[in-house]
Amino acid sequence: MLLWNYLMLKALLLDLDETLCDTEGANFQAKLAMANDLEKKHGQDFNGLAFADAYVTGIYRDWTDVQRARYMPIIEQQSEEAFRLQLISDLLAERGINNVSHETAQAFQNKFDSDRLKAFDFYPGIVAFLAEARKLFSLVVITNGPEFSQVPKVERVKLAKHVDHIIIGGQEPEQKPATSIFNKALKLANCQAHEAVHIGDSLATDIAGALNSGITSVWIQHQQPLDAELGINPHHTVLHPSEIPALIYQLHQQ
């Protein structure tokens, strides 16, 4: 157990995916299950893992310009779920499987979500860290992503039991890196920018947003390279979420 001294830091602003929770691990388990289901249905010659990889790439909106033009109107005019069902149909069509029924696409999408949620959990040690940190600081989670996917994740790990406030980007006018969402977090924490630290794994959203808001930033690098061309330089870097408690302790001794 860490014994922190009281210092000027009043709030920890925290990303959810790949910061508090092992989303990549949950995605991997769900992809394996999806691949297995597809190969059972369409035969061993069907590359289920390639399909599952393409599906996850799609739901994270890592799109080509053509895909963006196709899918954004569906999201804006219909729903996130409608987009994901269309994505499944499109990916199957690319592999020669046409005229996929709505029910079939829905079954694959539901199964993926269910498998991912079953595997979704905090990184080891994070729950204990949050319990200790909450004794001293206001804890605010800021997570990007649509309500469709983020609310079930939040509920799966009972996040509200472990932090003081939760902000879901898909429920806000703007998501990270917009300063508005960071300003909302500061207001909820009742503190100024210099009294907070934001911790996250994305240079483009977490770190850029914190820097633009005047908030000390901690980047969880995982296996990502530091892209100098982005011009985004975090104040502090850790390799894995397990290193967060020690860094916060260190910052509090300065």
UniProtKB/TrEMBL annotation:
InterPro entries: HAD-like_hydrolase, HAD-like_sf, HAD-SF_hydro_IA, HAD_sf. One of its GO terms (molecular function) is N-acylneuraminate-9-phosphatase activity. Its cofactor is Mg(2+). PANTHER family: N-ACYLNEURAMINATE-9-PHOSPHATASE. This is N-acylneuraminate-9-phosphatase. Keywords: Hydrolase, Magnesium. GO terms for biological process: N-acetylneuraminate biosynthetic process. It comes from marine sediment metagenome. NCBIfam families: HAD-SF-IA-v1, HAD-SF-IA-v3.
